[in-house]
Amino acid sequence: MPKLVVDFITSLDGYGAAEGWPGWWGLEGPEYLAWLADHPEADYTVLMGATTYRLMSELAADGEPGTDQLAALTKVVFSSTLTEPLSWPNTQLVSGDAVEAVREMKETGDKSMHTMGSLSLCRSLLQAGLVDLFRVVVFPVITGSTGNERIYDGYPDVSLEMVNSRTFDGRIQLLEYIPTVLDGPPGSNKSGS
């Protein structure tokens, strides 16, 4: 059965971006970039929402480095506001319920998937119990004054079993977990799902 990886890049304080900071907070290094280039999920289908699609396809149209590789990947964008034809190559538009579409892709498809950005999409897929691996790359910055896009707001309580970790360039942390959505705090008669 295909698996689903939720993939986030974050500051230490849980923001996905920060006003005035460059991409990757300006701290991408050769080890991290090499890992991205050799990414084991290069043949996975990329899942994203409309906001991420608009941002990434605009960056690609402007010739932003690295976006040419994304153009070749199979992408599915979930949106009720976008219309076809989409400008970014290899992109399928799904206007129906994202959770049901991903559930069907996992049950009947043959290709694993990973997310790109898309905070609300990732939250709904996790809440539905569809996420097999939760990956977070933590950059060593705190963006308390300028941070935006708080990643975990609105999430349920989740227990995370670490299955892999790695440090890139002596400062960037890769953390991979198997998630379990909880009904309440661990140890309470409501925990577990």
TrEMBL record:
Pfam family, one: RibD_C
Any single GO BP term: riboflavin biosynthetic process
InterPro entries found in the cross-reference section: DHFR-like_dom_sf, RibDG_C, Riboflavin_Biosynth_HTPR
A single GO molecular function term of this UniProt record: 5-amino-6-(5-phosphoribosylamino)uracil reductase activity
SUPFAM superfamilies on file: Dihydrofolate reductase-like
Domain Bacterial bifunctional deaminase-reductase C-terminal stretches: 2-173
PANTHER family per UniProt: BIFUNCTIONAL DEAMINASE-REDUCTASE DOMAIN PROTEIN, DIHYDROFOLATE REDUCTASE FAMILY PROTEIN (AFU_ORTHOLOGUE AFUA_8G06820)
Protein's UniProt name: Bacterial bifunctional deaminase-reductase C-terminal domain-containing protein
Organism: Rhizocola hellebori
